[in-house]
Amino acid sequence: MNILKSRLLIKNDVMRYKGRTLSIIIIFISIMILGIVPKALYSGIENYYVNGVKALGTNAMIIYTGNTPNFLDINQIYGISFSDISHIDKNITGIKYLTPFIQFASYIPSNNLDVVTLGVNSSYGNIINTGLLNGSYWSSNYNYSVNGTLTKIGSNLNTTFGKNETVYETGIIPCIIGYGIYKDMNASVGQIIYSFSFAPPSIGGIMEVRLKVAGIQQYRNIPPIISSFGFDINSMITIPLLSTVTMFNTDYHVYGIIASSSNFQNSTAIGNSIVSILTKSHPDITYTIMTQEGVINTIDNEVNASVAFNLILNALSFFIAALIIFVLTIIAVKERMKEIGILKATGATKYDILMIFLSEQMLITVAGIVIGTLSGFLLLHVISTSSSIYPVPYYPTFSLSYFRYTDIASLVPFTIYYGVTLFIISLISAFYPSYKASCQEVVDSLHSD
Amino acid sequence: MLIPHTFRKGIVYKIDKIRVILWEDIGQVCSMNGYVNTVNKSHKMLKLVNVSKVYTIGKDVIHALENINVDIDHGEFISVVGPSGSGKSTLLHIIGLIDIPTEGKYSINEREVSTFADRDKANLRSELFGFVFQDFYLFPRLTAIENVLVPTIFSRKNAILNNSTNVMKMAKIDNRIDHKPSELSGGEKQRVAIARALINDPGVIIADEPTGNLDSKTAEDIMKIFKYLNQKKKKTIIIATHNELVSSYADRIIKLKDGKIVEDSKMVNNT
């Protein structure tokens, strides 16, 4: 009899109003996706920033010469110079690395520069450029070309350069090159290893830059795990400060300074010391120190705010689901009032009628939840596998790459709770109209239009 | 507990067979909560005493039935006749437990209906009564046999009684079992409805204008089925109709007018 009951339920009830059934299922799918995907994003961000960066054990910082960085507005450039950085380097101990954070446009006058110096006998004070271009700026305008002995250059930010080396272009200085280049390509001093032309929006024309090896880095003994903002320092090049000054051949102003303390505890003191030195030479400038910790806190706060927003969104979704199920159950009951009469006349009890309507709504709800869950996870898989690996920027920005870091295992219990909650809400919403239907007098049901 | 499955199945089958024999031999068995068991043929099966039904529509009070006194015995074939609005359907609904009287007493096997719980009434509707309606009331997306089987979902009787093929043969619709209502004629739909009414092997068939939507030839065929069920299967048949041909099949006619019984007469030698 259960088979017949199922057939009665599915064939007669659920399948009769296919459009409506499908609509409810689609709504539940959407609600599930709206629950799962943001949760996955937060999980990814948490893992990417908070857990990842915290695990590094260092505290890099960026000191801005202005409160609002604007890469494209040349007028926003303030006046820290390379000599300032050199001065800082000489006067503050405990700095792990220090690098200028240059407004891109600041070296426009030095067109056609041979810019790269691969440091010789580097020591503390060497620049480790960890800058990264935000991909949305002008990546499409890059037009890499091969020069010298290089044969493998890609056309995007995360380009395989040389042998399995990722090149991180900086929007500030195009000089971060994996050390594998000179190691594996046997580059020599004076050799141009890399040239490219591009058209940044700020200059409105094509600019060409050639990178020449100015020296060969004797790689420092840096523990391999240590990295900054998600970068593995071992995959980076260090550029001596003086060489960098030479390469620009001038005292152009830089936008900011990226620094890292040698231990987590003294980072605030070092940041303040740097600002103190800078303030002496440039008292008119306002400085902002953003530490990794600060970035993490910012991201934490933003994630928390988003989670709160998402909770409201989830609550709204649940409310909408409840309302839809409630209204549609009422409609279903009204449409099938005569059927209720027939079923009762043939022996159905109140409980039977209640269960028929509840089962129908629950069947649709479960279908929506299951399909929604599968769709949500499929979507996550597609997003995470199709997005590129994106190193952590200095600013909290949105990237689909965060989905790559989602902890799927932690998402499972959430999905179960979410699905079960949705099911219970749906059940409660369907209960009252179904109960009212079950209490209907047989004769009234039979005489209904 | 350790009895092999096939053996257990055999035992269940035997017990069921005995139950069927007992069922048909003793009379109606209502398996509701144990309080109605075997039927004592010395008293009337259905008894209505001073039953009235009043509807209030707005400020209007409509007396659908007034002081109805009716006794219905096992195996009777009763035709309730009267003009539209005379209370025929209301009387049948009260008898079939799908409506409740405003006043008066209605007893089934000497047990007053007002003492029945909702579940007990549902059980009686499932097992004591079989309903046939003028508009058939079939489920449009189910096939004929599925429609016939619908009451079995709610029945507590054993499946051995629910022989859908037999009832469809009785209703002469066994050649259309896989057809949906939309593929059936009016007469065929009514046969399916009759088979559905028979599926739980009820003692009483209540038919409200069963031929109202049928042509006279088909109506006659349907009435022959009812006659067969009454004479051969000993079913009590109660039909509401205003068709004289239909009422001519009954061996007792109750005439209603304005909610009152104006005549209750037995026909002689009506076979």
Notes on the protein architecture:
The complex is a heterodimer of chains A (449) and B (271). Chain A is of the alpha+beta class. The model of chain A is unreliable at 67-78, 101-187, 193-253 and 390-394 (pLDDT under 50). The relative contact order of chain A is 0.19. In chain A, strand 10 and strand 11 (231-232) form a beta hairpin. In chain A, the strands form 6 sheets. Chain A has a 4-stranded antiparallel β-sheet with strand order 3-14-1-15. A 3-stranded antiparallel β-sheet of chain A has the order 5-8-9, with no helix packed on it. Chain A has a two-stranded antiparallel sheet with strand order 2-13. Chain A contains 11 helices and 15 strands. In chain B, a hairpin with a 2-residue loop joins strand 4 and strand 5. Chain B is α/β, with parallel strands linked by helices and 271 residues long. In chain B, 47% of the residues are buried. The model of chain B is unreliable at 1-41 (pLDDT under 50). Helix content of chain B is 34%, strand content 25%. Chain B contains 8 helices and 10 strands. The A-B interface holds A 1, 4-5, 7-8, 11-12, 15-16, 338-339, 341-352, 441-443, 446 and B 93, 96-100, 118-119, 122-123, 125-127, 131, 133, 137, 139-142, 146, 149-155, 159, 196, 200.
List the helices and strands and how they pair.
The complex is a heterodimer of chains A (449) and B (271).
Chain A (H helix, E strand, L loop, with lengths): L1 H13 L3 H39 L3 E5 L15 E2 H10 L3 E7 L25 E2 L14 E3 L13 E3 L3 E3 L12 H5 L7 E7 L8 E6 L14 E2 L2 E2 L5 E2 L1 H8 L4 E2 L1 E6 L5 H15 L6 E4 H44 L1 H9 L4 H37 L21 H31 L3 H6 L2
Antiparallel strand pairs in A: 1-14, 1-15, 2-13, 3-14, 4-12, 5-8, 6-7, 8-9, 10-11
Helix pairs in contact in A: 1-9, 2-7, 2-9, 2-10, 3-5, 7-10, 9-10
Chain B lengths: L4 H22 L19 E12 L2 E13 L4 E5 L6 H8 L7 E6 L2 E2 L5 H10 L1 E5 L10 H11 L9 H7 L15 H13 L5 E5 L7 H16 L4 E6 L2 H4 L4 E6 L2 E7 L5
Helix pairs in contact in B: 4-6, 5-6, 6-7
